[in-house]
Amino acid sequence: MCLAIPMKIIQIDGVQAVAEVDGVTRQVRLDLLPDAVLGDYVLIHAGLAIAKVNAASAEETLSLLRSLADEIY
Questions:
Q1: 32: which residues sit within 8 A by CB, 6+ positions away?
Q2: 5-72: what fold?
Q3: SS3 label, residue 5
Q4: Model confidence pLDDT, tens digit, residues 6-56
Q5: 25 forms bridges with which residues in the sheet?
Q6: Rounded to two decimals, what is the model's pTM?
Q7: Are 49 and 28 in contact (CB under 8 A)?
């Protein structure tokens, strides 16, 4: 099973980008999403942005993941 996490793009340099969620930043690649722009929410899997998602969908998914983490920890 694979898991992709929604993250917000906060910096772009060519096909390299920095994405953020809950204060955590990661270097990611935009090879599959050349039309991605600052502020877009994208699904990140293994360091690669694989799809754009709207902000409401991203926040809903993140809320569910936070709830799950709260139950585990």
A1: 48, 49, 50
A2: SH3 type barrels. (2.30.30)
A3: strand
A4: 999 999 999 999 999 999 999 999 999 999 999 999 999 999 999 999 999
A5: 20
A6: 0.91
A7: yes
